[in-house]
Design goal:
Helix content is 43%, strand content 11%. The chain has 662 residues and is of the alpha/beta class. Strands 15-14-13-12-7-6-4-5-2-1-17 form an 11-stranded mixed beta sheet, with helices on both faces. Helix 5 (121-133) packs across helix 9 (212-228) and helix 8 (184-205) runs antiparallel to helix 9 (212-228).
Amino acid sequence: MAKAPKTPPKTLAVASAPRKPGRTTSAKPRAPRAKKAVAEAETVIPAATSGPSDTATAADATPDTASANPFAFPGEEQRQMIETLSINLAKAAMTAQAAIAEAALAQADRPAALSADPFNVGPAMNSVMTSLAARPDKLFAAQADLFNRYMDLWATTARRVSGEEAAQPSKDKRFKDPAWAENPMFDVMRQSYMVTADWMNGLVSSVDDVDPRTKRRAEFFTKLLTDAFSPSNFLASNPAALKAMADTNGESLVKGMQNFAADLERGMGKLKISQADYGRFVVGENVATAPGQVVWRDELFELIQFDAATDQQRAIPLLIFPPWINQFYILDLQPENSMIRWLSSQGFTVFVCSWVNPDVSMAANDFDDYLEKGIYRATQKVMEQTDQDRLNTVGYCIGGTLMGAALAHMAARGDKRINATTFFAAQHDFEEAGDLLLFTDEHWLNQIEQQMDAAGGVLPGAAMADTFNALRANDLIWSFFVSNYLMGKEPAAFDLLFWNADQTRMPKALHMNYLRSMYGANKLTKGEFEIGGERVDLSKVRIPLYFQASREDHIAPMNSVYRSARAFSNADVTLTLAGSGHIAGVVNPPSANKYQHWVNPALPDTLAEWQAAAVEHPGSWWPHWAQWLHARSGEWVAARDPNKGPLSPLEPAPGSYVKVKS
């Protein structure tokens, strides 16, 4: 046996034979001394070339031998790429590990989670599994169905590999990269996942002997699980992410892990995925820029009057009550999509109630406070400022729920200050309120109540954001997970998502009453809800009402809004159905020429009947609403200047309350 050398082997001399640039060099292995040859070969440093082909490697001399040589090594350029990739992969791993370690330290002093199963999924899944176990015939049929689906998949794959059948691109946004269809391996991976996920979700949905809400909870969380395990969410099985890593020699992954670390830091140890480039927007500078003045401020809201955009305005002013879950500037993002600017351009005097972002001092505030100190006070101040004895109002989302209850309260007391009201994506009948009902069983409500107690009596803004994101996990969680972390991209400068992340806190008393009374017991429609000392009845409201619903709304589903419209059984109700969802269905300026809307003057028993007779129109529903609103806004008067009314201006719009962050 040869003795180990006491000194490192000398660097091998570069072959003097002519060598072509870019070709690899390698040493021929000798059978008896293969290991030593390899060790020596590892020390080879190829000579750099600066001119035309004037040197040659051993591989050039014996191409067949060199190409079959398992010990051949890449050239300098390839070697540097591999070294860069290795360094970047190590750097990405260390960045992620350090971020996770810091997050663990940040969370160490915090109390443990209140429950390992805060949404009470375990009992729901147990009920579903028990039902399936009691039906072995159904399980056997399901297994056979899965086997047949995979047999079809393998047959289809075989035809595609042999060139008999072309792969079809997926319509699923997660698999939009062409490689998912063009590469046989990724195509099989994608289709196998789709088969399994569809089978699992279908199996849970097939259960028919459990409580409907229990079944829906199991369906919802099964879909959350299958969405999470999509191959698009993992680096090793995402062709677009792998290509980005290869094209950048791993720099995309380094940047992705830096984004991951920044989001953990921003969430103080909890992952808070960035959905937009938050640094690109400043409230009052490039969002929420409609000119106007704050003409009233108290502990609950700022009242903003916006400047006139026409020489004349309608006599009856318009006051908008946005949801207090978010800030009001969803209606004033950019000049081109600002509803507030558009309404002003149509000749309306526009006011907005900008709710305060409540702190722990407001923990005991309830619906009574938001009615008396919010609705009643704000409407009174608008009438003072415009010298009118009545006004029109808008209630958006939960602001519309409060506005509906306020109308019933006014009807009970004979108060006629409201001339007409519009509801954007607002619910009053919560019987079919969508997936948010899954988060409102008593088990979860106790959990959220304890969470608010731990926060001093308010619900942190991030908690509600997490809930809304979970309702659309693929769009609001996983798409950003892939883009930000696996691809290393910077979040887009998107005003709507910037606003979406600007969540506010909510007082405990108000929020728990809302969840239990509305989602839990549906008291408002049943005539059992008490507010301001009255048990209110929606059927007593008799003023004109305009309801807007959105076809793809996942927060205020169109059927729930339709039921709400019918709950005002003695009012003059007009309903319009818009395309898109909870936000884009509302914020759709005519200039965008997007989506469509449907109108039907009747209000039959069911939404299906209404849709069957509805007439579709292209584009925004705003002009239809403006026509309705003009007919109920009085005569034309000289344009009003916010600086010259009885209420002294306090500061320019958008005011101070909208700038308070949670």
